[in-house]
Specification:
By secondary structure, this protein is mostly helical. The chain has one domain. Helix content is 77%, strand content 0%. The protein has three helices and no strands. Helix 1 packs antiparallel against helix 2. The longest helix has 26 residues. The radius of gyration is 15 Å and the shape is flat. The model has no long low-confidence stretch (mean pLDDT 86).
Amino acid sequence: MTMTFLTITVTSFNLGVFSVTVALLIAGFKGFMVLSYFMHLKYENLLLRILVGMIFVLFALIVLITFIDYAYR
């Protein structure tokens, strides 16, 4: 609930071009918390944790490439 409250609080500030970045960082952290504690990834073996981490890196790359494409149109 704290992270949801933080998300709602951040939307009231005018962060300009960083609004989407902050929202994505908060959403990524909330996703990490769900994976770690509620899906018990914290207690799995190292290989599975590395694979899930690589999926997050791939997702971040896709989002970054999308924003770069949007910026240069």
